[in-house]
């Protein structure tokens, strides 16, 4: 097999004339506002992001209740004051994530990937773990759980390697087009790589079997056929065993990857060693092992995990 062959993405969303219709104007307005925020100097983005987060905290009452319920479920040892402080920190993180989205969609890297400004704000830890996994030639699944730094993770990884990002298509076709286009990357060697729909299993397998790298985010709730119910923060959770299945079908290495937003407007991306004895042949044990990795990182950096997702299928909050 030709490991260097370009993998075609025939399912990438295309622009449609219907996007000009009035029913999409609200989306265009929101995107236009984000585009204006992209011009804000980088040194202001954290402060403005926290302001946006505090605004979301005030207006998003339902999401605020969900986040608090998730936090109380996962951190029973914390008292109410500690939980509410963490709640506020999380909404600050959500606001900053909006500003980070403007960096990914319209940042310096779009025109100047080789010498992009964004390279100066990130440091990499464990890069040798990624390189070693890639050197095996069987493809690499870069496992990146849903933290609020999600958008930047893909950009930062692109500074080290060409890769394909797996994403969940948006239900709205215009949003799907905008998100997919925003996450597309023009690499320094001229290769243009587009994100891959998580429904396109055939293309995902093709990418890995070609010896390429792919980011994957399997930590959210999964209720479809084939799910496994595994503890996550001590609570039984319907989960996606796809990481084990993909690794088994392709022989790819699995490299857990965590991005952290630091206090000084800097970021850290850490690549852990590729998982040994993975898959083990037991989807339950494999998923439990992954959950334990995620949980350790979330406990280290709790405010930056994506708590607005109803991961534990809470009925009331």
Automatic annotation (TrEMBL):
| Superkingdom, taxonomy of origin | Bacteria
- Keywords on record: Acyltransferase, Cell inner membrane, Cell membrane, Membrane, Transferase, Transmembrane, Transmembrane helix
Bilayer-crossing residues are: 25-44
Q: Where in the cell is it found?
A: Cell inner membrane
Transmembrane as a keyword of this entry, yes or no, is: yes
Q: Which GO terms describe its molecular function?
A: acyltransferase activity
Pfam families listed in its UniProt record: Lip_A_acyltrans
Give the chief site where it resides.
membrane
Q: What is this protein called?
A: Lysophospholipid acyltransferase family protein
Q: Which organism is it from?
A: Thiomicrorhabdus lithotrophica
